[in-house]
């Protein structure tokens, strides 16, 4: 079950080929075992079907026959296991990918999280499996599914045994597990048997009866006398593989030749028999082929040709298939194969003869073939198996910094890093820089800095030019690391000095320095300078015609435009970036595409287009997970805000928790995301009425980021002080501290306008307008609204959300007195048709008192059962009220009902 890779190095496990889940066909002349299949069918009443016996007793063939005989309505998933699947992360990735063949999209977040797992880090497999099994239970919807793990003994280990024991303990209804293995798994089999949840077939069950052996012999077209048959059965003792080996060896024997001694159950005899009666009887070219290709876990004709430096591999494979020489197909197309494990073990034990190509050389040839196929991951693995870590390192070095920094798919490079000896990382400045950038982009700052320090071993360089270049590259990387830590002055100094000495052809590193300086300018509130850096970055990317860097430049420009309040222009910029990436295939994830997609979702949320925003945010999160890109926290945060706007507080907190779990699993320092997540939580707490809690955490954030010695705002939230000022003012207003709230909002107005941050100026204006309306200062509120309309002309409709919901009639009247413009038109289109009646105090929709009570609990995130318990009414009555509410409000879902009720003023 070896994973292929896509041309860019990302495992195409994102789309794992069929061969990984292909159930091998029954061998020619297979003798049916109906009585065993009947016993297995009876075992479907339990949870586990275990077929455990030594090699060659027909375990896999029986499992395959049983799958073909399953009652109608059953689905099957076949996982043929190999030694490489012993890593629990690899195993469960394939396990989930197999399930997704039947249930597309199953546990998308879990799959991405598993792919980002680093083997040296602890991983909570049981928690991961719990979420998977819960989601699978929902998706089953009454269906029956049989999961087959074939050759489980090849992957057994303490972690995997424990994890699968958990699966057995929590197996969803309708799912059964069938396992074939040479040794019994370390599971609680006695307990399962006691509770009638286990059916186990062992060696005594699998031995061929006389009738079955006779059917097998007859199926091969071999004529035996009764005496010969009885002798063979006595000697073979019902061993399927021994009988098959004997039949295979006898096919070309003269009819007058006495039957050879039948094999006994012993590895030595298996060895001798295979050598003498199978391998030695093959033509010399076929024998050489077997020994040369045995080192491969899987192979195709083209790979075998490259390995042998011949052109007849396809013909030899046809010969092996025709003569049933232990060739196992791995796909429906008949392109990829492996040898039977027992057969390949024997072949690999055969020492190369004098003059034969060594195994290391064969792996090296395979490495070159995979390199030519643009399959760098498999190429690196073959180089390592050849004992040539230097070749593996060279393959990694062939990546340019521009390719790495443009794609920013650090997951790929971090996986390779685990396969190479640590001693190699210090052998060349290039490897140090490549892995240093990968670690920095993965937010593993301490590791990146430790690696960057190794560059000092290469100083002084051979020439002054080389020395300047090496120092400039070190400064570029150090600037990135310093920005991640919030060391603004150090980051600026490193980036500026790097730009002085980095040559033009190092445009990727120059681009990263300019991008970092632009972000720091936004952090300092100097937006005009950020725009200048954006212009330089875009010109640099266009000069070299690199679409990835051009798209990154458009992303950075969009962020600055949004910081200035120009939401519509930012949205155009994002779409320009996505259009520049239009030529890239969807088969491979790109961090820049993930960021642009996420930012498009964020901007659509600012435009009050929640459905479109949600779709883009979810797509961006999926791609960001595949790239291990930290910006997925933006997607989760905006999704949480959207859930809060629709009244689903529980979903909002779940989304934030998922973001934190993911980033923690990726070893991302909290400095990158904690402030953003906490800020959204404060918004949720305030919406729930937990104002002291929100106030406490806002105060802590303010002490950190706006105190006497403020920390730098994080890279993902460079305008954090403005966010904090707005949130604190809103909490003060909700605590009826109106004077403090008014003072804070007016301070925020002035501060935001001074910085050119018109979006925050707009938010401050509208919240001040709401405060003045609450206090009956209508004339002042009208003047502030005019200011807000001016600040919001860039298209940020979200700032007006509460005004649209709470004072639609007043807003409509005020807009009627203003000059026509795009913003006024957008706001009028969002106003409900019944604004006047709702604002006047009457109910625009005639909901009963009980219906309003149910609606309020729905808005608090209560389930139907919780509403039933709180209102002392039946569950059926709750559902009836919910249907009536949806009908009266003209919506289909409860979240839509809450949003509609808020727009009509029925809910605050």
Automatic annotation (TrEMBL):
Disordered: annotated span: 1-24
InterPro entries xrefs: P-loop_NTPase (IPR027417), Sig_transdc_resp-reg_C-effctor (IPR016032), TPR-like_helical_dom_sf (IPR011990), TPR_MalT (IPR041617), Tscrpt_reg_LuxR_C (IPR000792), WH-like_DNA-bd_sf (IPR036388), WHD_MalT (IPR059106)
UniProt key word Cell membrane: no
Annotated signal peptide: none
Molecular function per GO: DNA binding
GO biological process, any: regulation of DNA-templated transcription
Keywords, comma-separated and alphabetical: DNA-binding, Transcription, Transcription regulation
Every HTH luxR-type domain range: 840-905
Matches recorded under CDD domains: LuxR_C_like (cd06170)
UniProt-recorded name of the protein: LuxR family transcriptional regulator
């Amino acid at each position: 079950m070896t994973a292929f890779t896509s041309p860019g190095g990302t495992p195409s496990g994102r789309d794992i080929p069929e061969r990984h889940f292909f159930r091998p066909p029954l061998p020619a002349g297979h003798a049916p075992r109906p009585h065993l299949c009947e016993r297995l069918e009876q075992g479907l009443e339990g949870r586990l079907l275990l077929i455990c016996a030594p090699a060659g007793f027909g375990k896999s063939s029986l499992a395959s026959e049983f799958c073909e005989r399953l009652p109608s309505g059953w689905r099957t998933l076949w996982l043929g296991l190999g030694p490489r699947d012993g890593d629990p992360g690899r195993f469960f990735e394939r396990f989930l990918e197999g399930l997704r063949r039947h249930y597309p999209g199953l546990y998308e977040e879990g799959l991405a999280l598993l792919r980002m797992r680093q083997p040296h880090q602890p991983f909570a497999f049981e928690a991961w499996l719990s979420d998977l099994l819960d989601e699978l239970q929902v998706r089953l919807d009454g269906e029956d599914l049989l999961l087959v793990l074939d050759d489980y003994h090849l992957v057994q280990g303490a972690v995997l045994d424990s994890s699968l024991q958990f699966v057995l303990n929590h197996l969803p209804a309708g799912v059964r597990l069938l396992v074939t293995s040479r040794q019994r798994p370390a599971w609680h089999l006695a307990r399962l048997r006691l509770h009638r949840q286990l059916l186990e077939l062992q060696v005594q069950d699998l031995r061929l009866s006389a009738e079955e052996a006779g059917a097998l012999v007859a199926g091969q077209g071999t004529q035996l006398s009764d005496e010969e048959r009885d002798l063979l059965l006595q000697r073979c003792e019902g061993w399927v593989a021994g009988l098959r080996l004997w039949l295979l060896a006898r096919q070309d024997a003269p009819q007058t030749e006495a039957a050879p001694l039948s094999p006994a159950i012993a590895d030595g005899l298996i060895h001798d028999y295979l050598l003498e009666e199978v391998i030695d009887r093959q033509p010399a070219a076929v024998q050489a082929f077997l020994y040369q290709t045995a080192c491969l876990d899987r192979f195709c004709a083209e790979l075998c040709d490259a390995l042998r430096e011949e052109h007849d591999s396809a013909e030899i494979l046809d010969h092996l298939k025709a003569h049933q020489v232990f060739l196992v197909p791995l796909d429906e197309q008949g392109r990829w194969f492996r040898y039977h494990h027992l057969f390949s073990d024997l072949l690999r034990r055969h020492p190369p003869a004098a003059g034969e190509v060594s195994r290391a050389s064969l792996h090296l040839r395979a490495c070159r073939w995979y390199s030519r196929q643009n399959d760098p991951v498999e190429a690196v693995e073959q180089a390592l198996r050849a004992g040539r870590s230097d070749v593996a390192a060279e393959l990694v070095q062939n990546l340019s910094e521009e390719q790495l920094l443009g794609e920013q798919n650090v997951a790929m490079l971090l996986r390779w890093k685990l396969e190479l000896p640590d001693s190699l990382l210090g052998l060349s400045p290039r490897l140090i820089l490549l892995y240093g950038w990968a670690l920095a982009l993965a937010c593993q700052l301490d590791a990146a800095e430790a690696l960057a320090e190794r560059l000092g071993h290469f100083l002084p360089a051979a020439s002054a030019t080389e020395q300047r270049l090496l120092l400039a590259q070190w400064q570029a990387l150090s600037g990135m690391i310093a920005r991640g830590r919030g060391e603004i002055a150090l980051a600026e100094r490193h980036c500026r000095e790097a730009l002085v000495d980095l040559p033009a052809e190092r445009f990727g590193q120059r681009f990263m320095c300019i991008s970092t300086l632009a972000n720091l300018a936004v952090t300092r509130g100097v937006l005009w300078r950020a725009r200048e850096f954006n212009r330089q970055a875009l010109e640099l990317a266009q000069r070299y015609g690199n679409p990835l860097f051009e798209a990154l430049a458009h992303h950075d420009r969009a962020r600055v435009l949004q910081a200035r309040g120009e939401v519509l222009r930012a949205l155009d910029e994002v779409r320009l970036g996505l259009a520049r990436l239009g030529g890239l295939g969807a088969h491979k994830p790109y961090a820049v595409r993930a960021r642009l997609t996420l930012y498009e979702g964020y901007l659509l949320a600012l435009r009050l287009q929640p459905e479109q925003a949600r779709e883009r945010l979810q797509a961006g999160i999926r791609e960001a997970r595949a790239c291990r890109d930290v910006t997925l926290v933006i997607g989760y945060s905006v999704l949480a805000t959207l859930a809060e706007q629709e009244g689903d507080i529980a979903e909002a907190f779940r989304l934030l928790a998922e973001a934190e779990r993911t980033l923690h699993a990726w070893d991302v320092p909290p400095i990158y995301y904690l402030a953003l997540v906490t800020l959204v939580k404060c918004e949720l707490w305030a919406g729930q009425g937990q104002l002291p809690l929100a106030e406490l955490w806002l105060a802590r954030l303010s002490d950190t980021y706006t105190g006497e010695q403020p920390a730098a705002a994080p890279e993902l939230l460079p305008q954090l002080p403005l966010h904090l000022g707005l949130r604190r003012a809103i909490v003060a207003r909700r605590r009826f501290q109106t004077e403090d709230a008014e003072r804070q909002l007016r301070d925020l107005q002035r501060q935001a306008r001074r910085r050119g941050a018109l979006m925050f100026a707009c938010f401050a204006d509208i919240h001040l307008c709401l405060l003045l309306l609450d206090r009956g200062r209508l004339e002042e509120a009208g003047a502030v609204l005019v200011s807000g309309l001016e600040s919001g002309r860039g298209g940020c409709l979200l700032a007006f959300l509460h005004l649209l919901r709470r004072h639609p009639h007043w807003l409509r009247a005020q807009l009627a007195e203003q000059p026509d413009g795009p913003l006024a038109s957008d706001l009028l289109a969002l106003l409900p048709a019944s604004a006047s009646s709702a604002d006047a105090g009457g109910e625009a929709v005639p909901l009963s008192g009980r219906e309003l009570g149910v609606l309020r609990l729905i808005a608090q995130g209560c389930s139907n059962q919780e509403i039933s318990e709180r209102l002392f009414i039946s569950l059926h009555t709750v559902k009836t009220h919910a249907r009536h509410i949806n009908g009266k409000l003209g919506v289909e879902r409860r979240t839509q009902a809450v949003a509609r009720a808020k727009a009509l003023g029925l809910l605050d």
